[in-house]
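#lab-general

N.A. 3:47 PM
ok so I finally got the sequence cleaned up, no stray characters, all 416 residues accounted for. can someone with queue access submit it? mine expired

B.Y. 3:52 PM
send it over

N.A. 3:53 PM
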Amino acid sequence: MANGYRDPYKNPAFAEMLGLASQPTEVRTFAQVANEYLATLVDAERRTIGQYRKTLDDHIVQAVVTLPDGTRVGPLGRLPIDEFTGDIIQAWINQMREKQHGKKALKPYSAKTILNIHGTVISPVFDYAIDKEYCSRQPCRNVKLPERKGKAVKANKVITGVEIPEWIECAYEVDEDTGDITLVLLATGLRWGELTALRVCDVEFDASTLTVAQVVREDENRRPYIESTEGKSANAFRTITLPPKALQVLRRRAQGKGKLALLFPAPGTRGGTLWRNANFNEHRWQKVKELAAQRGLIKEPTPHGLRHSHASELIPVVGIEPVSKRIGHANVTVTSAVYSHLTPDADSRMATAIDSTITGGKTLDTGSAAPAAAESSNDAASDLPPELTALLTKAIGQALADGTELGALLRAGRTE
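B.Y. 4:20 PM
back already:
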């Protein structure tokens, strides 16, 4: 034992003399830890990382919040990571709910925006900090977040039924590319990035199938690039069967092209230039909408909305699960949340189906006897008290419905 220490290396003076004393841990700020965390997201899209960085700069790093006791804390980016509390996070949430933004008209931030920032940046940064032992508690736990409204697609954005061929005609009036894109999106339910990454080799013309094997994404500077390792969801890379009309369009577009050539390159190119959704919207789709309006078509679909039309037309026919797989959703729950309200006729058909099961295909007399009996008893009971009349009416109706001798006599009296 040395100077009261069983292990001399635990003696601070001895350890310091040997150069083994632990050094003070550097205090890291929220901004520093956030940058460390983002550097670990090697599997995320470059554009996603860029969005996270912008979110940090716009909404968190420079934010100064007011606690319930009136204390002002911030800027949050400079605050040591281990000094954050649930009150600070809650104050940020409350401040975001009251904050106004907008270029033309000011409006509060939506619950979706606040939840996304909290769930994709703030809370994960503290999870990372706990793993790295920069702090010991998760201040995001038990805070009160705004309730997010449903993610369902708006019906006025989805064309259905007889509207679909009319919109396709409007698209072909603009030009062949626009018509082909509109038809194939409606026929396949592909996302824009899946369509524009489609190559000749991705289509099996003899088997009438199409395989989604890559997708167009955008980097942090919104420049498009092709990603072939993963899609929008775990089920995004998939093979689907093509309807004849879509197969015909793709066969025509593949003529004279190599196996790796894109089927939908940007205008003026044959091989590899990627067509951005924003450019198509501005220069082609706006013209389609103008032509549609001239025909009295009042809905406001987007190119991505054509995917919604594809799904909502198929769900009543085959159900949600096969459609979910066809359009590449992560799971059936996502599909149900997005589209179930667009297929009200499905509920009507379910009511009809269960009615057929109940009756066994037979015509059942389930209620006509009682009203008739009540009607025939009205004259006889007209002088009776209302309470007694009601009781007699109920008894006669029950007797008619039962297989008793009294019921048989009453039914025989009705037929005379």
